[in-house]
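Note to self: the last two entries modelled the partners one at a time, which told us nothing about the interface. This time every component goes in together.
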Amino acid sequence: MNRTSLRRIGESPSLLTFFALLLGFLIGAVVIIATTAPVLNAWRQLFSSPTAVLHALNVTFDNVGAAYRALFVGSIGNPSSFAHSLATGQSWTATLTPLSETLTYATPLVIASMGVALAFQTGIFNIGANGQAILGGIGGAWIGSMMHAPMIIHLPLTLLAGVAGGVLGGLIPGILKSFAGAHEVIVTLMLNYVIAFFLVYVVQSTPLQQPGQANDISRTLDHSALLLPLFGAGSGLRVSYGVFVAAGVVAFGWWFLNRSTLGFAFRVTGANPNAARAAGFNPKRIIILVFMISGGLAGLAGVVQLASTNYFIDGGFLIGSAGIGFTAITVSLLGRNKPAGIVWGSLLFAALGVGGRTMQARTGIPLDLALIIQSIVVLFVASPVLVKEIFRLRAKAQTVQLATKGWSQ
Amino acid sequence: MRVELRGITKRFGSFTANDAISLTVEPGQIHCLLGENGAGKSTLMNVVFGLLHADEGEILINGESVAFSNSGDAVRKGIGMVHQHFMLVPVFTVAENVVLGFEPTKSLGRLDAKAAADQIRTLSARFGLDVDPDAVVENLPVGLQQRVEIIKALSHDAELLILDEPTAVLTPQEIDALMDIMRSLAAAGKSILFITHKLKEVRAVADVITVIRQGRVVDTVSPSLSEGELATAMVGRSVSLTVEKEDVVVGAAVLELRNVTVRDDRGVAVVTNVSLDVREGQIMAIAGVQGNGQTELVEAIAGLRHVESGTITLGGRDITNASPRQILDAGLGHVPEDRQRDGLVLSLSVADNLVLNAAAKAPFAKGWNRRLAAVRDNATALVERFDVRTTGIDAEVGSLSGGNQQKVIVARELSRDITCFIAAQPTRGLDVGSIEYVHSQIVAERNSGRGVVIVSSELDEVLALGDQVAVMFAGTIVDVVSPDVGREAIGLLMAGGGQ
Amino acid sequence: MTTTPVNGRGRVIAVLMMALGLLVAMAFGFGSAGNAHSVFTFAPVNISGDRPWHLGDLTVLTRWWNVVLGLLIIALGVETWVRRPKAALARFGGAAIFFLVALLFWASRSPGPSQVPFVNVTSVLTGSSAIAMVLIFGSLSGVLCERAGVVNIAIEGQFIGGAFFGSVIASTTNNFILAALGGAVFGALLGWLLAFLAIRYLADQVIIGVVLVTTMSSLTSYLNLQVLTPYPNLNIGNTVATLPIPLLDKIPLIGPVLFNETGFFYLAILLVAVVSFALFRTRWGLRVRAVGEHPKAAESVGINVARTRYRNVIMGGAVAGVGGVAFMATQGQFQPDYTSGLGYVALAALIFGRWTPSGAVVASVLFGLSAYLANGLQSYSVPISSEFIGMFPYLVTIAVVAGLIGRVRPPAADGIPYQRS
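The predicted structure of the combined assembly is written out below.
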C-alpha cells in the first residue's frame, strides 16, 4: 500500500474507531493478564525452564482467548451450534439466545443514543439522558400499571407517557440554558441525582408502589402495556417488538438530521450559533426543542426498557451500571453522532454487556471487564489525535471539534 | 537599543506570511510598519516577540544575534509588546497585571503588593501614564487598559516597544494621547515599532516607514510622502477604485432609521439618535473609523442587537426589534462584518451555506422536508454566476479562500428576494480581483433599484461606491454628504470635525 | 456565564426564601401541637473516658422556636430582595441551615410521630463533618484544576480509585499515612491522564472526565471481584483512629466535632488554608489564576501555560485521591460504586463556593449536613420524604448556575483547551 492511500485511510473516522476498538481490547487483555492468577504464575516461572516463555505465552493466550471467545459466544453465538441448528433444524432457541439478548439490550440503547447524538449535533452535551430515561420509566410505569385499556390504546399511551416524562426532564435544562444561561452539563449532571432521589420517592411513597410492599418497588405493567417478545412468550427469546420502535427511531433520526428543515437548523446551531442567529434561527427556541427531543428519546428508551425487559421499576431502575443513559453518551461518541454509527455502536456495546455475563460465568472474569473496554474505547475515540499518533497516522490539521465549550460558554 | 531583522521568513503550510523581511529600528526611533490587513505585519511582530519561530532569518539586538524560545525570552532582552487584543487578565488589578510573570515577592513566595504598586506609580510619573494600580482592569475604559499594557511593557525595562494596531479601538482623543505618549517615550530613548494601516497616524508620528505587502518589504520611505503616495506603496496599485456607475433614478426610501439608539454588550450607548434614509437605487455608504458604532448599528438593523429607542422601517414595515427571521423575510439582505463568525457555517457545504437562511422555505423545503435537489440546483447556478472558486458544491465552505467565502455570502443574500442590501466591510481581507467583483455586484444591485447600505472603514471604498456618504463618529451620524466633497472633507468628518 | 444582570433572578430567590420561611413558620411552627417540644442532647458518641463537662438536654417548644426560625428565613429573604444580588449566596446558605434546623426540631418533636424523641446534636455534627471532609478534598481538587483552566469532572473517579488503593494499602500495612500517599499517587496519575489528554491532545475535558469516572468505577468494581474477593485480607475494612487534640477536644460540643477527628480531617482543614493562601497571596497563585483566566496573556509574559496546567491538575488529582482514602478510612470496607456520587457533590460544592477554597468549605459543610440528614431523617418517621433533603445539594447547584442565587463566574478559560498560536 503506498503512502498516500495510507494517509487517506488515516483521516477516515471509521479507521480511527477501529483502532480505538483495537486498543480497548488490547488494554482489556492487559487487565486480564495482570489480574488472573494462572497467567501471572506462568510468567513468574519465566526462568525455570527453557520453554517457560512458550508456556507462559500459551497460558496467556488461553486465558485471554477464553475470555474473548466467551464474549463472542455469549453475545453473538457459537458457530458450531449454528451449524448444528442449520443441519438438524433443532435447538434454535439456544443457538439464537445470545443474539436475542444482544438485540434486547441494544434496543433501548439505540433510542437513548439517538437522543444524545441529536443533542451533540446541536452543540449540546446532554449528560442527563439517564435521568430523563428514568423519568420516562416512571411515566410509563404510571400509565402502564395504573391505567387499564386494550393493548391498542394502552401500549401507545404507555410509550407516550415515557416520552412525556423524558420531555419534562429535558425541558428543565433546556429552559435554564435558554433563558438563564445555565450550563447544561452541570444542570443535567445534577438533575440525574435529583431524579434518582425522585425515583425512590415515587416507588416508595406514592400510589405507584406495589400494594402490600414496603420496599421501593412499583406495580407491574399490565400485559396490555408490554412490548411482547417478538417470537412469542413461549419462544424463550426475549427480543421484543421494541426493536421496531428502535428501528423507527433510527429512521426518524436519519431523516431528522439529513432531510428535515428543523434538523438543518439544529446542525447549523450546533456548528455556529452566531451564524444560526444571523440566519434567522432562534437559538433559544432551538435549545429548548433539542432538549425536548433529546429528552423525549431518552424517556422513550426508559419506557422501552421497562415495557420490554423489566416490567416494573424499583429504586435501582437504570441506576449505576444499568444506566443506559450513560452508556448512550459513549455510544454516540463511538458512533460519531450518526444514525448508522449509533446502530453499530449500540450493538457492539450491547454485545459486550451481554457477552460479559457469559464470560463471567465461563471464565470467572468479572463482567466489569466489558465496561472497562467500553470506557477505554471511548477514551480513545474522544482523543483522536492520540490514536493517530500511536498508529503513526498522519494527523489532519489540528481542528478539534469540542462538544462542550467550558463552563463560561 | 538597536534592533535589526535580517531575512525573516515565516511560513504556515504552503502560505508564506513573511518573506525575507529585513528592517532596522534605531534607538529613540518611531519606526512604522505599514501594510494592509493580512500583509503579514502581525506575524512578523509575533516572531520578534518570540510567540512564533521564524523559519529563516535572524534577529540582532545591538548587533548580537538572539534566539527566543518564548515571549519571556524576548521580554528579558528588552522587547515589550502591546497587543491588538490586550494581554490583560480582566479580573486582576492593574498592579497584578503589570507584575504578572515578574512578581516582586516576600518570603514564602508571597506577592509584594506594595512594591508592585510603587513600581507602577514610579513608571506612571516618569512617562506621564496616569493609572490607579488598584483598579480592576475590566472596569477601566479601553484607552486606560492600553496604558496598562504600555506600563506593563515598560516595567519589564522594555527598550523596544511594539504597538500592534494600537489605535483600532481608541477614540480620537485617546489616539491623540497615545501619540503624545509615543513621542515622549521616543524622546526618552525607547525605540518603537508602530504597526498600522492608517496613513494619517503614520505621517503624524513616524520617523521611518517600512511598507510591507503580501509578506514582503516593498519600500522604506520617509513620512514626508503624501498619503496618496503611501497608500499606493501599501496597496501596490492605483487606489482609484472608481467603479463604473450609471445614473439611476432614485426612488422612495426603503430603509428608514429614526432616532435609533443602541447599546453595546457592556451597556454603553454606542449608537445615539441616528436617523437615516436609504432610497431605492441608492448606495448609502457609511464611513467612519472602526468602533464608532457602525458595527452595532448594522446589527440593530439586522435584528441581532436590541434597539433601545427609535424605529427602523424596511419597505414600509416597522422592523424595530423584530426577530432576525422577520427582518430577513421583510426583505433585508445582510452581509455581516465577520463572515466566519456570523455569515457562514464553515463545516457545512457550499450548497448548504448558499441556502443558510432560506433552507426552510420554498423551493428549498416542502413542509418539514428539505428539498435537496433544489438546494443543489441553486448551488450550481450561484457558483457559476458568482464565480465561486470551489472544488464542488459539496466542499466545506471552510476550505474556500476568504474571497470565495465572501462571494458565497454575497451570492446567497443577492439571490434572495430583497428590497434592501446591507453589507458591512464587504471587501475586508479580499484580493483585488474579488474586490472588483463584489463591488460590481453591489453596483448591479443598486442599478436594479434596491436600496444598498455599505459600511466600510476604507475611505477609498466609500468614495468609490457611495452615492451618498453618511459619516459616523462617536455613535452619531455627523453628516450625510456627496462623495464629491472629496476625501479631505470626509476625513475631517470621520475625525469628528464639523460637529 | 452571561452578562445579563441577574436582578430579576435575585428577586426570584428572595421570594422563594420568603415562601420557605412562611412554610417553616406555618407548617413546622403552627403545624406542631402547642405543647409539643423538641429535645436536643449533646452526649458525644465517639469519646471514651472522662469528660470534664456534661451538657444537659435542651428542651424547646417546637412551635415557637420554629416560628422564630421561619421569621429569620423570611428576614433573610427580605434582605436579599432589598440588597440583591450582593452576598445572596451567603444569605441563602444561612436560610438553608435555619431550614434544616427547623426541620430537625419538627421531626424530633414529641408528642409527634417520631420514634426517636430527641436529636443528638453532637452525632449529627460529627456525622456531617465526616461527609463534609470528603467534599472538601474533592472541591479543593476542583479549585486547583479549574483555577488553572481545566475542568475536573473526574473527581468521582479519583475518589473511587483513591478509596480502592487506600483500602488495599491500609489493609496490608495498617498504616493510613501510606494509604494516603498511595491514594495521592494514584489520584495524581489519574490527574496526569486527564491533563495529558486535555492539554496535549486537546480532548474535550468534560467528556474525558465523564469517561474517566466510568473507567474507574468499572475498573475498581472489576478488581474488587477479581482480586479483593479472593483475597479478603486486602480489604479488611479497618478504619483510621481519631487523633484527639489535648484539651481542645474537651470543649463542649465543638470538641468532639472539630478536635476529636481523624488526621484526614485536620489535613483537609490545613489544605484549605494552604491552598487559599497560595492561590490568593503568592506568586504561584497569581500565575495559576492568570492561566485560568487568560492563558494567552500568561504566555505573553513567559508563563508556561501547559506546565502550569499539568502541575495543577496532577496536584488536584492527588488531593481528590487522598479524599477517596479519607472516605474509605472513615467508612470502612471498599465496595463497588463506593463513593456513590460524592465526587459530583464535590463538584457542586466547588460551584456553590464560587471556585474559592473558603467558599468550598462553606458549601461542603452545608451539603454534608444535608447529605447526612437525608440518611438520618429516615429514623424519625418524618411524613416528608428524606429524598427531598437528599436532592438539596443538587437543586441548590442548579439554582446557582442558573443565576437564581447571586452570580457565579467561573475562571474565564475554564474548560477551554489552549493552543499556542
